[in-house]
């Protein structure tokens, strides 16, 4: 079951260099005992705001999404590791959002009268 | 001899409780207790049943002001408790991670269908 999602924004570079960044990221993950399930490329887009990182002002970035299963201990170490990588603009570990909207039963009308009267 | 069937025989209902059963209360002129047959299904908000994700920037941008980028309140969006909270959390997350702009609404999504009409809040 996918446990984490790593949202990665990478500096705009030529294809082989981007490939190298992703490769070493995934290798670092696997070294620490994570199982990479899927790697998605969300395209190269212009960033929503200018981000200054590693002494550079970035306006465009390559968005990547890695879902992986990993022990929770590697989160801090990986954030540290990715922070030192000069090609990575932003990194974020998110618990994998498994779809859980099966039981939405609509708005249940709340009885405000009952809430006013203190229950004893 | 066959049993005489009177017009008042309700197929066995008369035999319970010595001739007076709860099902026959209509005969006595009172209402039969039952669930409201005209009950409407509970009202659903716009996002009922839709999965809210921080990556879905277009959906999240529909609940944000185009001028300032501020998140609309519950009285404007008309969402239920749960969904409003989910949307707020997702928007905040997307803004921090670098998926969604903070101070304005992404211009590509300005022409999206309007869910929240700020002039006539519900």
From TrEMBL, chain A:
Alphabetically ordered keywords of this record: Mitochondrion, Ribonucleoprotein, Ribosomal protein
GO cellular component: mitochondrial inner membrane; mitochondrial small ribosomal subunit
GO molecular function: small ribosomal subunit rRNA binding; structural constituent of ribosome
Domain of life: Eukaryota
Claim: GTP-binding is one of the keywords in the record: no
Compartments where located: Mitochondrion
Gene Ontology annotations of biological process type: translation
Record CDD domains: bS6_mito (cd15465)
Family as reported in the entry's similarity comment: Belongs to the bacterial ribosomal protein bS6 family.
Protein's UniProt name: Small ribosomal subunit protein bS6m
Automatic annotation (TrEMBL), chain B:
Gene3D superfamilies: Ribosomal protein S18
GO function term, MF aspect, one: small ribosomal subunit rRNA binding
Domain of life: Eukaryota
Entry keyword set: Mitochondrion, Ribonucleoprotein, Ribosomal protein, Transit peptide
Keyword Iron set for record: no
Gene Ontology BP term (one): mitochondrial translation
Location in the cell: Mitochondrion
NCBIfam families: S18 (TIGR00165)
Protein's recorded name: Small ribosomal subunit protein bS18m
Record organism: Melopsittacus undulatus
Underlying gene: MRPS18C
């Amino acid at each position: 079951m996918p446990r984490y999602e790593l949202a990665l924004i990478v500096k705009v570079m030529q294809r082989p260099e981007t490939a190298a960044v992703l490769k070493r990221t995934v290798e670092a993950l696997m070294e620490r005992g994570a199982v990479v399930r899927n790697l998605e490329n969300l395209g190269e887009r212009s960033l929503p705001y200018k981000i200054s990182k590693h002494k550079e002002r970035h306006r465009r970035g390559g968005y990547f999404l890695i879902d992986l299963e990993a022990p929770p201990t590697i989160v801090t170490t990986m954030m540290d590791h990715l922070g030192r990588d000069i090609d990575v603009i932003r990194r974020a570990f998110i618990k994998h959002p498994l779809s859980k909207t099966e039981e939405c039963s609509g708005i249940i009308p709340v009885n405000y009268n009952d809430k006013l009267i203190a229950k004893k | 001899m066959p049993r005489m069937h009177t017009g008042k025989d309700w197929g066995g209902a008369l035999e319970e409780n010595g001739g007076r059963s709860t099902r026959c209360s209509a005969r006595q002129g009172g209402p039969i207790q039952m669930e409201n047959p005209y009950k409407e299904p509970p009202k659903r908000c716009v996002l009922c049943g839709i999965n809210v994700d921080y990556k879905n920037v277009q959906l999240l941008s529909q609940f944000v002001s185009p001028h300032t980028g501020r998140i609309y309140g519950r009285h404007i969006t008309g969402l239920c408790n749960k969904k409003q909270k989910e949307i707020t959390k997702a928007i905040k997350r997307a803004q921090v991670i670098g998926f969604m702009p903070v101070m304005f609404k992404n211009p590509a999504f300005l022409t999206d269908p309007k869910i929240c009409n700020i002039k006539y809040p519900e």
